[in-house]
Specification:
alpha+beta; three-stranded antiparallel sheet; two-stranded antiparallel sheet; elongated
């Protein structure tokens, strides 16, 4: 059952949607910009491509349970 829920969250994020679980929180994607990074071993400059980063925002109900 848990695997089904996780698969649904991943499927929703892959299609670009925000996935909300009422009282728990919401999952969404943030887009990072391409940037110039550095290889820590060699010090060589490398291009880091843009990517989608999953983000979780805590829901109000869960926040109230944690911080009464």
């Amino acid at each position: 059952m848990l695997q089904t829920v996780l698969d649904s969250i991943v499927e929703g994020l892959n299609s670009g949607e925000m996935v909300e679980l009422r009282g728990f929180g919401s999952f969404l994607l943030r887009q990072s910009r391409p940037r110039q990074g550095r290889n820590p071993k060699t010090g060589e400059k490398v291009q880091v491509p843009a990517k989608r980063i999953p983000y979780f925002k805590l829901g109000k109900g869960l926040k109230e349970l944690i911080n009464p």
